[in-house]
Protein backbone atom coordinates (compact mmCIF):
# COMPACT_ATOMS: atom_id res chain seq x y z
CA UNK A 1 0.00 0.00 0.00
CA UNK A 2 2.74 2.45 0.97
CA UNK A 3 4.69 1.38 -2.11
CA UNK A 4 1.71 2.11 -4.41
CA UNK A 5 1.20 5.53 -2.78
CA UNK A 6 4.89 6.41 -3.21
CA UNK A 7 4.68 5.36 -6.84
CA UNK A 8 1.63 7.55 -7.48
CA UNK A 9 3.25 10.55 -5.78
CA UNK A 10 6.39 10.09 -7.88
CA UNK A 11 4.35 9.95 -11.09
CA UNK A 12 2.10 12.88 -10.17
CA UNK A 13 2.48 16.03 -12.30
CA UNK A 14 0.41 19.10 -13.03
CA UNK A 15 0.53 22.11 -15.31
CA UNK A 16 1.19 25.19 -13.23
CA UNK A 17 -0.76 28.32 -14.15
CA UNK A 18 1.03 31.47 -13.12
CA UNK A 19 -1.24 34.47 -12.71
CA UNK A 20 -0.13 38.04 -12.23
CA UNK A 21 -2.62 39.48 -9.72
CA UNK A 22 -2.88 43.07 -8.53
CA UNK A 23 -4.91 44.96 -5.93
CA UNK A 24 -7.16 47.98 -6.48
CA UNK A 25 -5.82 50.89 -4.44
CA UNK A 26 -8.04 53.76 -5.61
CA UNK A 27 -11.30 54.16 -7.52
CA UNK A 28 -12.61 57.17 -9.43
CA UNK A 29 -15.39 57.48 -12.00
CA UNK A 30 -14.41 55.17 -14.83
CA UNK A 31 -10.81 54.58 -13.72
CA UNK A 32 -8.99 52.63 -11.01
CA UNK A 33 -5.42 52.58 -9.72
CA UNK A 34 -3.91 49.11 -9.31
CA UNK A 35 -0.73 48.01 -7.55
CA UNK A 36 1.16 44.73 -7.91
CA UNK A 37 1.10 44.35 -11.71
CA UNK A 38 4.82 44.77 -12.21
CA UNK A 39 5.04 43.21 -15.69
CA UNK A 40 1.94 44.78 -17.25
CA UNK A 41 2.13 46.54 -20.67
CA UNK A 42 0.39 49.64 -21.97
CA UNK A 43 -3.01 48.91 -23.62
CA UNK A 44 -3.11 45.45 -22.03
CA UNK A 45 -6.53 44.06 -21.15
CA UNK A 46 -7.09 43.69 -17.39
CA UNK A 47 -9.85 41.52 -15.93
CA UNK A 48 -11.83 42.64 -12.87
CA UNK A 49 -14.54 39.98 -13.05
CA UNK A 50 -16.01 37.59 -15.56
CA UNK A 51 -17.75 40.33 -17.57
CA UNK A 52 -15.81 43.45 -16.57
CA UNK A 53 -12.50 44.44 -18.12
CA UNK A 54 -10.18 47.39 -18.19
CA UNK A 55 -7.33 48.71 -20.28
CA UNK A 56 -3.99 49.86 -18.86
CA UNK A 57 -3.53 53.51 -19.63
CA UNK A 58 -0.81 54.95 -17.42
CA UNK A 59 2.23 53.14 -15.99
CA UNK A 60 3.61 54.73 -12.83
CA UNK A 61 6.41 53.69 -10.48
CA UNK A 62 4.30 51.82 -7.91
CA UNK A 63 0.91 51.47 -9.57
CA UNK A 64 -0.95 51.34 -12.85
CA UNK A 65 -3.83 53.55 -14.05
CA UNK A 66 -6.55 51.39 -15.61
CA UNK A 67 -9.55 52.59 -17.66
CA UNK A 68 -12.64 50.56 -16.74
CA UNK A 69 -14.55 49.34 -19.80
CA UNK A 70 -17.92 49.25 -18.09
CA UNK A 71 -19.67 50.13 -14.85
CA UNK A 72 -17.17 50.58 -12.01
CA UNK A 73 -19.79 51.05 -9.23
CA UNK A 74 -19.40 47.51 -7.90
CA UNK A 75 -15.61 47.65 -7.66
CA UNK A 76 -14.06 48.17 -4.24
CA UNK A 77 -10.62 49.05 -2.95
CA UNK A 78 -8.80 45.81 -2.17
CA UNK A 79 -10.41 43.79 -4.97
CA UNK A 80 -8.08 41.55 -6.94
CA UNK A 81 -7.51 42.06 -10.66
CA UNK A 82 -5.77 39.79 -13.17
CA UNK A 83 -3.64 40.31 -16.23
CA UNK A 84 -4.91 38.65 -19.40
CA UNK A 85 -1.69 38.97 -21.40
CA UNK A 86 -3.76 40.30 -24.34
CA UNK A 87 -3.58 43.70 -25.97
CA UNK A 88 -7.10 45.17 -26.08
CA UNK A 89 -8.80 43.75 -29.15
CA UNK A 90 -12.16 43.41 -30.89
CA UNK A 91 -13.69 40.40 -32.69
CA UNK A 92 -13.88 40.77 -36.49
CA UNK A 93 -15.96 38.58 -38.77
CA UNK A 94 -18.25 38.65 -41.82
CA UNK A 95 -21.03 37.68 -39.42
CA UNK A 96 -20.87 41.14 -37.82
CA UNK A 97 -22.60 42.67 -40.86
CA UNK A 98 -26.08 43.76 -39.85
CA UNK A 99 -25.32 43.57 -36.14
CA UNK A 100 -25.32 46.12 -33.32
CA UNK A 101 -22.39 45.60 -30.93
CA UNK A 102 -20.42 47.45 -28.26
CA UNK A 103 -16.69 48.26 -28.66
CA UNK A 104 -15.74 44.88 -27.15
CA UNK A 105 -17.85 43.00 -29.70
CA UNK A 106 -20.67 42.11 -27.28
CA UNK A 107 -24.12 42.07 -28.96
CA UNK A 108 -26.59 44.85 -28.16
CA UNK A 109 -29.34 43.73 -30.55
CA UNK A 110 -30.59 40.74 -28.54
CA UNK A 111 -29.05 38.22 -30.96
CA UNK A 112 -26.44 35.59 -30.02
CA UNK A 113 -22.78 36.57 -29.93
CA UNK A 114 -20.72 35.88 -33.05
CA UNK A 115 -18.95 32.55 -32.57
CA UNK A 116 -16.65 32.45 -35.60
CA UNK A 117 -14.24 35.38 -35.49
CA UNK A 118 -10.68 36.63 -35.34
CA UNK A 119 -9.32 39.15 -32.84
CA UNK A 120 -7.88 42.41 -34.15
CA UNK A 121 -6.13 44.82 -31.74
CA UNK A 122 -8.00 48.12 -31.54
CA UNK A 123 -4.72 50.02 -31.92
CA UNK A 124 -3.06 49.32 -35.27
CA UNK A 125 -0.41 51.17 -37.25
CA UNK A 126 -1.74 53.19 -40.16
CA UNK A 127 -0.68 51.92 -43.63
CA UNK A 128 2.63 53.37 -44.76
CA UNK A 129 2.88 55.85 -47.61
CA UNK A 130 4.21 53.23 -50.04
CA UNK A 131 1.14 51.06 -49.36
CA UNK A 132 -1.26 53.82 -50.46
CA UNK A 133 -2.46 55.03 -53.85
CA UNK A 134 -4.18 58.31 -54.76
CA UNK A 135 -7.87 58.76 -54.03
CA UNK A 136 -9.52 58.79 -57.46
CA UNK A 137 -12.73 56.75 -57.15
CA UNK A 138 -15.83 58.75 -56.13
CA UNK A 139 -18.02 57.87 -53.18
CA UNK A 140 -21.51 58.90 -54.27
CA UNK A 141 -23.49 60.28 -51.33
CA UNK A 142 -26.77 60.77 -53.19
CA UNK A 143 -26.79 64.36 -51.87
CA UNK A 144 -26.74 66.81 -54.80
CA UNK A 145 -24.84 69.65 -53.16
CA UNK A 146 -22.06 67.31 -51.99
CA UNK A 147 -21.66 65.16 -55.11
CA UNK A 148 -21.65 68.23 -57.36
CA UNK A 149 -19.67 70.80 -55.36
CA UNK A 150 -17.85 68.98 -52.51
CA UNK A 151 -17.05 65.53 -53.96
CA UNK A 152 -15.83 62.75 -51.67
CA UNK A 153 -13.51 59.96 -52.82
CA UNK A 154 -13.09 56.43 -51.55
CA UNK A 155 -10.24 56.59 -49.05
CA UNK A 156 -10.80 60.24 -48.18
CA UNK A 157 -11.38 61.75 -44.71
CA UNK A 158 -14.11 64.39 -44.95
CA UNK A 159 -15.11 66.18 -41.76
CA UNK A 160 -18.78 67.05 -41.10
CA UNK A 161 -19.10 69.90 -38.63
CA UNK A 162 -21.72 72.32 -37.43
CA UNK A 163 -23.70 73.43 -34.41
CA UNK A 164 -26.08 71.17 -32.51
CA UNK A 165 -29.17 70.05 -34.43
CA UNK A 166 -28.11 71.21 -37.89
CA UNK A 167 -28.34 67.85 -39.68
CA UNK A 168 -24.83 66.40 -39.34
CA UNK A 169 -26.02 62.87 -38.56
CA UNK A 170 -28.66 63.09 -41.31
CA UNK A 171 -25.95 63.65 -43.96
CA UNK A 172 -23.91 60.69 -42.68
CA UNK A 173 -26.93 58.37 -42.54
CA UNK A 174 -28.12 59.45 -46.01
CA UNK A 175 -24.65 58.66 -47.34
CA UNK A 176 -24.88 55.16 -45.83
CA UNK A 177 -28.35 54.68 -47.34
CA UNK A 178 -27.03 55.64 -50.79
CA UNK A 179 -24.43 52.83 -50.70
CA UNK A 180 -27.15 50.21 -51.19
CA UNK A 181 -26.13 49.38 -54.77
CA UNK A 182 -22.60 50.80 -54.62
CA UNK A 183 -20.87 47.71 -53.13
CA UNK A 184 -19.62 49.70 -50.14
CA UNK A 185 -19.69 48.22 -46.64
CA UNK A 186 -20.55 50.72 -43.88
CA UNK A 187 -19.54 50.95 -40.21
CA UNK A 188 -21.46 53.43 -38.05
CA UNK A 189 -19.83 54.26 -34.71
CA UNK A 190 -21.81 56.23 -32.12
CA UNK A 191 -19.84 57.83 -29.29
CA UNK A 192 -21.84 58.93 -26.25
CA UNK A 193 -25.10 59.57 -28.14
CA UNK A 194 -28.57 59.47 -26.57
CA UNK A 195 -30.28 56.10 -26.73
CA UNK A 196 -33.29 57.68 -28.48
CA UNK A 197 -31.05 59.15 -31.19
CA UNK A 198 -29.33 55.80 -31.73
CA UNK A 199 -32.69 54.03 -31.98
CA UNK A 200 -33.84 56.58 -34.57
CA UNK A 201 -30.73 56.00 -36.70
CA UNK A 202 -31.12 52.22 -36.53
CA UNK A 203 -34.79 52.58 -37.50
CA UNK A 204 -33.91 54.74 -40.53
CA UNK A 205 -31.24 52.31 -41.68
CA UNK A 206 -33.63 49.37 -41.29
CA UNK A 207 -36.46 51.11 -43.15
CA UNK A 208 -34.17 51.78 -46.11
CA UNK A 209 -32.60 48.31 -46.17
CA UNK A 210 -29.19 49.67 -45.15
CA UNK A 211 -28.68 47.31 -42.20
CA UNK A 212 -27.89 44.54 -44.68
CA UNK A 213 -24.48 46.10 -45.32
CA UNK A 214 -23.88 48.07 -42.11
CA UNK A 215 -22.21 47.30 -38.76
CA UNK A 216 -23.10 49.49 -35.79
CA UNK A 217 -20.61 49.98 -32.94
CA UNK A 218 -22.57 51.69 -30.18
CA UNK A 219 -21.76 53.55 -26.97
CA UNK A 220 -24.50 55.54 -25.25
CA UNK A 221 -24.31 58.71 -23.20
CA UNK A 222 -24.46 56.81 -19.91
CA UNK A 223 -21.68 54.38 -20.85
CA UNK A 224 -18.30 54.64 -19.14
CA UNK A 225 -15.67 57.05 -20.50
CA UNK A 226 -13.48 54.04 -21.24
CA UNK A 227 -15.97 52.52 -23.67
CA UNK A 228 -16.43 55.88 -25.38
CA UNK A 229 -12.67 56.26 -25.67
CA UNK A 230 -12.02 52.90 -27.36
CA UNK A 231 -15.18 52.91 -29.53
CA UNK A 232 -13.76 54.63 -32.66
CA UNK A 233 -10.56 52.56 -32.54
CA UNK A 234 -12.52 49.30 -32.25
CA UNK A 235 -14.85 50.34 -35.10
CA UNK A 236 -11.85 51.22 -37.28
CA UNK A 237 -10.26 47.80 -36.67
CA UNK A 238 -13.50 46.15 -37.81
CA UNK A 239 -13.52 48.36 -40.92
CA UNK A 240 -9.84 47.60 -41.61
CA UNK A 241 -10.56 43.86 -41.54
CA UNK A 242 -12.83 44.28 -44.55
CA UNK A 243 -10.55 46.84 -46.24
CA UNK A 244 -7.64 44.37 -46.06
CA UNK A 245 -9.90 41.89 -47.88
CA UNK A 246 -10.15 44.30 -50.81
CA UNK A 247 -13.52 45.87 -49.99
CA UNK A 248 -14.51 49.52 -50.04
CA UNK A 249 -15.61 50.58 -46.56
CA UNK A 250 -17.25 53.74 -45.23
CA UNK A 251 -16.94 54.56 -41.52
CA UNK A 252 -18.84 57.30 -39.66
CA UNK A 253 -17.69 58.59 -36.25
CA UNK A 254 -20.65 60.24 -34.51
CA UNK A 255 -19.16 62.22 -32.96
CA UNK A 256 -15.53 62.97 -32.07
CA UNK A 257 -16.52 65.85 -29.78
CA UNK A 258 -17.79 63.29 -27.28
CA UNK A 259 -14.63 61.23 -27.83
CA UNK A 260 -12.44 64.23 -26.96
CA UNK A 261 -14.53 64.95 -23.85
CA UNK A 262 -14.24 61.33 -22.68
CA UNK A 263 -10.47 61.39 -23.19
CA UNK A 264 -10.19 64.68 -21.29
CA UNK A 265 -12.20 63.22 -18.39
CA UNK A 266 -9.99 60.14 -18.23
CA UNK A 267 -6.78 62.19 -18.41
CA UNK A 268 -7.83 64.61 -15.68
CA UNK A 269 -8.83 61.77 -13.36
CA UNK A 270 -5.41 60.23 -13.99
CA UNK A 271 -3.92 63.60 -12.95
CA UNK A 272 -2.15 64.06 -16.26
CA UNK A 273 -1.02 67.67 -16.96
CA UNK A 274 -3.82 69.64 -18.64
CA UNK A 275 -3.23 71.93 -21.61
CA UNK A 276 -5.47 74.23 -23.61
CA UNK A 277 -9.11 74.07 -22.44
CA UNK A 278 -7.98 71.37 -19.95
CA UNK A 279 -7.39 68.87 -22.77
CA UNK A 280 -4.21 66.80 -22.42
CA UNK A 281 -1.27 67.59 -24.67
CA UNK A 282 -1.78 64.55 -26.89
CA UNK A 283 -5.41 65.29 -27.84
CA UNK A 284 -4.28 66.02 -31.42
CA UNK A 285 -2.39 62.73 -31.58
CA UNK A 286 -5.31 60.52 -30.50
CA UNK A 287 -7.41 61.79 -33.43
CA UNK A 288 -4.61 61.89 -36.00
CA UNK A 289 -3.60 58.29 -35.34
CA UNK A 290 -7.24 57.30 -35.70
CA UNK A 291 -7.96 59.10 -38.98
CA UNK A 292 -4.61 58.23 -40.59
CA UNK A 293 -5.88 54.65 -40.79
CA UNK A 294 -8.35 55.70 -43.50
CA UNK A 295 -6.79 55.33 -46.95
CA UNK A 296 -6.90 53.68 -50.36
CA UNK A 297 -4.61 50.65 -50.52
CA UNK A 298 -2.59 49.69 -53.59
CA UNK A 299 -3.70 46.70 -55.67
CA UNK A 300 -0.97 44.42 -54.29
CA UNK A 301 -2.68 44.72 -50.88
CA UNK A 302 -6.17 44.12 -52.25
CA UNK A 303 -7.03 47.61 -53.46
CA UNK A 304 -9.53 48.18 -50.65
CA UNK A 305 -10.36 51.59 -49.24
CA UNK A 306 -11.54 53.08 -45.97
CA UNK A 307 -13.42 56.37 -46.20
CA UNK A 308 -13.95 58.29 -42.95
CA UNK A 309 -16.72 60.76 -42.17
CA UNK A 310 -15.90 62.09 -38.70
CA UNK A 311 -18.52 64.38 -37.16
CA UNK A 312 -17.69 67.26 -34.83
CA UNK A 313 -20.01 69.65 -33.01
CA UNK A 314 -19.24 73.37 -32.92
CA UNK A 315 -20.57 76.00 -30.54
CA UNK A 316 -22.04 79.32 -31.74
CA UNK A 317 -20.69 78.70 -35.28
CA UNK A 318 -17.11 78.82 -33.98
CA UNK A 319 -15.16 76.59 -36.37
CA UNK A 320 -11.87 78.05 -35.07
CA UNK A 321 -12.29 76.36 -31.68
CA UNK A 322 -9.61 73.95 -30.42
CA UNK A 323 -11.02 70.54 -31.38
CA UNK A 324 -12.62 71.65 -34.71
CA UNK A 325 -9.35 73.22 -35.92
CA UNK A 326 -7.47 70.07 -34.94
CA UNK A 327 -9.82 67.91 -37.01
CA UNK A 328 -9.86 70.35 -39.94
CA UNK A 329 -6.05 70.16 -40.11
CA UNK A 330 -6.09 66.34 -40.03
CA UNK A 331 -8.84 65.69 -42.59
CA UNK A 332 -8.98 66.19 -46.37
CA UNK A 333 -11.75 68.76 -46.30
CA UNK A 334 -14.90 69.65 -44.41
CA UNK A 335 -18.64 69.98 -44.92
CA UNK A 336 -19.89 72.86 -42.77
CA UNK A 337 -23.57 73.00 -41.81
CA UNK A 338 -24.87 76.48 -41.06
CA UNK A 339 -27.54 76.98 -38.36
CA UNK A 340 -28.75 80.07 -40.26
CA UNK A 341 -29.48 78.01 -43.36
CA UNK A 342 -31.10 75.36 -41.20
CA UNK A 343 -33.43 77.94 -39.65
CA UNK A 344 -34.40 79.13 -43.13
CA UNK A 345 -35.37 75.58 -44.09
CA UNK A 346 -32.54 75.21 -46.63
CA UNK A 347 -31.76 71.53 -46.11
CA UNK A 348 -29.21 70.08 -46.12
CA UNK A 349 -27.84 73.25 -44.54
CA UNK A 350 -24.46 73.03 -46.28
CA UNK A 351 -22.58 76.33 -46.36
CA UNK A 352 -20.87 76.05 -49.75
CA UNK A 353 -18.49 78.91 -49.07
CA UNK A 354 -17.03 77.31 -45.91
CA UNK A 355 -17.05 73.74 -47.23
CA UNK A 356 -14.24 72.23 -49.26
CA UNK A 357 -12.91 68.92 -50.53
CA UNK A 358 -9.13 68.87 -50.83
CA UNK A 359 -9.32 65.82 -53.10
CA UNK A 360 -11.83 67.67 -55.27
CA UNK A 361 -12.31 66.81 -58.94
CA UNK A 362 -9.76 63.98 -58.74
CA UNK A 363 -12.45 61.95 -56.97
CA UNK A 364 -15.41 63.11 -59.05
CA UNK A 365 -16.90 61.49 -62.12
CA UNK A 366 -15.71 63.40 -65.15
CA UNK A 367 -19.25 63.94 -66.40
CA UNK A 368 -19.91 66.16 -63.37
CA UNK A 369 -17.12 68.48 -64.41
CA UNK A 370 -18.74 68.98 -67.82
CA UNK A 371 -22.14 69.90 -66.35
CA UNK A 372 -21.34 71.72 -63.09
CA UNK A 373 -19.28 74.47 -64.75
CA UNK A 374 -19.03 77.60 -62.60
CA UNK A 375 -22.01 76.67 -60.42
CA UNK A 376 -20.15 77.33 -57.17
CA UNK A 377 -19.03 80.77 -58.36
CA UNK A 378 -22.53 81.65 -59.55
CA UNK A 379 -23.98 80.67 -56.18
CA UNK A 380 -21.38 82.74 -54.29
CA UNK A 381 -22.18 85.78 -56.44
CA UNK A 382 -25.87 85.27 -55.79
CA UNK A 383 -25.38 85.17 -52.01
CA UNK A 384 -23.42 88.44 -52.06
CA UNK A 385 -25.99 90.19 -54.26
CA UNK A 386 -28.87 88.81 -52.21
CA UNK A 387 -27.39 90.32 -49.06
CA UNK A 388 -26.84 93.61 -50.90
CA UNK A 389 -30.42 93.68 -52.21
CA UNK A 390 -31.79 93.56 -48.66
CA UNK A 391 -30.69 97.19 -48.20
CA UNK A 392 -33.37 98.22 -50.69
CA UNK A 393 -30.97 99.34 -53.41
CA UNK A 394 -32.31 99.64 -56.96
CA UNK A 395 -31.03 96.69 -59.01
CA UNK A 396 -30.29 96.57 -62.74
CA UNK A 397 -31.61 93.80 -64.98
CA UNK A 398 -28.34 91.84 -64.98
CA UNK A 399 -28.25 91.78 -61.17
CA UNK A 400 -31.89 90.68 -61.05
CA UNK A 401 -31.10 87.81 -63.44
CA UNK A 402 -28.18 86.66 -61.25
CA UNK A 403 -30.43 86.70 -58.16
CA UNK A 404 -33.25 84.87 -59.99
CA UNK A 405 -30.80 82.21 -61.21
CA UNK A 406 -29.23 81.89 -57.75
CA UNK A 407 -32.63 81.29 -56.18
CA UNK A 408 -33.14 78.38 -58.59
CA UNK A 409 -29.71 76.99 -57.69
CA UNK A 410 -30.67 77.10 -54.01
CA UNK A 411 -33.99 75.36 -54.69
CA UNK A 412 -32.29 72.63 -56.73
CA UNK A 413 -29.69 71.95 -54.05
CA UNK A 414 -32.38 71.49 -51.40
CA UNK A 415 -33.13 67.85 -50.67
CA UNK A 416 -35.36 65.87 -48.35
CA UNK A 417 -33.91 63.53 -45.75
CA UNK A 418 -33.56 59.82 -46.62
CA UNK A 419 -34.23 60.50 -50.32
CA UNK A 420 -30.92 60.10 -52.16
CA UNK A 421 -30.78 61.27 -55.77
CA UNK A 422 -29.23 58.91 -58.33
CA UNK A 423 -26.35 59.85 -60.60
CA UNK A 424 -28.57 60.08 -63.70
CA UNK A 425 -31.07 62.32 -61.92
CA UNK A 426 -28.33 64.59 -60.59
CA UNK A 427 -26.73 65.05 -64.01
CA UNK A 428 -30.04 65.95 -65.67
CA UNK A 429 -30.93 68.43 -62.92
CA UNK A 430 -27.48 70.06 -63.15
CA UNK A 431 -27.74 70.33 -66.95
CA UNK A 432 -31.13 72.02 -66.66
CA UNK A 433 -29.74 74.32 -63.96
CA UNK A 434 -26.56 75.42 -65.74
CA UNK A 435 -28.40 75.87 -69.05
CA UNK A 436 -30.90 78.20 -67.39
CA UNK A 437 -33.92 76.00 -68.11
CA UNK A 438 -35.25 76.60 -64.59
CA UNK A 439 -34.93 80.40 -64.75
CA UNK A 440 -38.42 80.83 -66.23
CA UNK A 441 -40.00 78.37 -63.77
CA UNK A 442 -41.78 80.03 -60.81
CA UNK A 443 -40.14 79.25 -57.47
CA UNK A 444 -43.31 77.61 -56.16
CA UNK A 445 -43.17 75.13 -59.06
CA UNK A 446 -39.49 74.27 -58.84
CA UNK A 447 -40.22 71.08 -56.93
CA UNK A 448 -42.61 69.98 -59.68
CA UNK A 449 -40.02 70.79 -62.34
CA UNK A 450 -37.37 68.75 -60.54
CA UNK A 451 -39.76 65.79 -60.20
CA UNK A 452 -40.50 65.96 -63.95
CA UNK A 453 -36.78 65.69 -64.68
CA UNK A 454 -36.36 62.83 -62.21
CA UNK A 455 -39.22 60.99 -63.87
CA UNK A 456 -37.69 61.63 -67.28
CA UNK A 457 -34.38 60.09 -66.15
CA UNK A 458 -36.14 56.71 -65.95
CA UNK A 459 -37.14 56.80 -69.62
CA UNK A 460 -34.16 58.07 -71.58
CA UNK A 461 -33.65 55.17 -73.95
CA UNK A 462 -30.28 55.39 -75.69
CA UNK A 463 -29.40 58.57 -73.82
CA UNK A 464 -29.19 56.64 -70.53
CA UNK A 465 -25.78 55.27 -71.51
CA UNK A 466 -24.65 58.86 -72.16
CA UNK A 467 -25.22 59.76 -68.50
CA UNK A 468 -23.14 56.81 -67.36
CA UNK A 469 -20.22 57.71 -69.64
CA UNK A 470 -17.15 59.56 -68.47
CA UNK A 471 -17.55 62.49 -70.84
CA UNK A 472 -20.54 64.37 -72.21
CA UNK A 473 -20.09 65.55 -75.78
CA UNK A 474 -21.63 68.81 -77.02
CA UNK A 475 -23.91 66.87 -79.33
CA UNK A 476 -25.30 64.67 -76.57
CA UNK A 477 -25.58 67.64 -74.26
CA UNK A 478 -27.68 69.49 -76.85
CA UNK A 479 -29.92 66.44 -77.18
CA UNK A 480 -30.49 66.32 -73.44
CA UNK A 481 -31.14 70.08 -73.26
CA UNK A 482 -33.80 69.86 -76.00
CA UNK A 483 -35.39 66.86 -74.29
CA UNK A 484 -35.54 68.62 -70.90
CA UNK A 485 -36.81 71.85 -72.45
CA UNK A 486 -39.68 70.01 -74.10
CA UNK A 487 -40.63 68.34 -70.82
CA UNK A 488 -40.52 71.59 -68.85
CA UNK A 489 -42.54 73.42 -71.51
CA UNK A 490 -45.75 71.78 -70.29
CA UNK A 491 -45.13 73.12 -66.81
CA UNK A 492 -44.57 76.64 -68.20
CA UNK A 493 -47.80 76.49 -70.17
CA UNK A 494 -49.71 75.64 -66.99
CA UNK A 495 -48.25 78.70 -65.26
Automatic annotation (TrEMBL):
Membrane topology listed for this record: Peripheral membrane protein
Name of encoding gene: atpA
Reactions catalysed, as given in the entry: ATP + H2O + 4 H(+)(in) = ADP + phosphate + 5 H(+)(out)
MF-aspect GO terms: ADP binding; ATP binding; proton-transporting ATP synthase activity, rotational mechanism
EC identifiers of the protein: 7.1.2.2
NCBIfam families: alt_F1F0_F1_al, atpA, PRK13343.1
Taxonomic path: Bacteria, Pseudomonadati, Bacteroidota, Cytophagia, Cytophagales
Protein name from the UniProt record: ATP synthase subunit alpha
InterPro entries: Alt_ATP_synth_F1_asu, ATP_synth_asu-like_sf, ATP_synth_asu_C, ATP_synth_asu_C_sf, ATP_synth_F1_a_nt-bd_dom, ATP_synth_F1_asu, ATPase_a/bsu_AS, ATPase_F1/V1/A1_a/bsu_N
Domain ATPase F1/V1/A1 complex alpha/beta subunit nucleotide-binding residues, every copy: 142-357
Pfam families per record: ATP-synt_ab, ATP-synt_ab_C, ATP-synt_ab_N
Assigned keywords, A-Z: ATP synthesis, ATP-binding, Cell membrane, CF(1), Hydrogen ion transport, Ion transport, Membrane, Nucleotide-binding, Translocase, Transport
Amino acid sequence: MFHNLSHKVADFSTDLIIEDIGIITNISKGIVMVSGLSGVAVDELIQFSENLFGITFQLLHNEVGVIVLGNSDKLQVGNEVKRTGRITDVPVSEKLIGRVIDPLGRPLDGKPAVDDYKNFPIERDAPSIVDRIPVDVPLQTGIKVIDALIPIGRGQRELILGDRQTGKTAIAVDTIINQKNENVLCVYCTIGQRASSIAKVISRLEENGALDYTILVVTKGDDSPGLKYIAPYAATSIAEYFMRKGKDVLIVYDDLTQHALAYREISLLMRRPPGREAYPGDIFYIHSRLLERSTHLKQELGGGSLTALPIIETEAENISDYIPTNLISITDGQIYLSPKLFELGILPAVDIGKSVSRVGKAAQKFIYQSVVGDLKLAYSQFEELENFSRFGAKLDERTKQIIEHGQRIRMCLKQEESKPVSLQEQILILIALTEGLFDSIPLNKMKMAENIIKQRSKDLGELETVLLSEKLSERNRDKLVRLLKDNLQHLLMSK
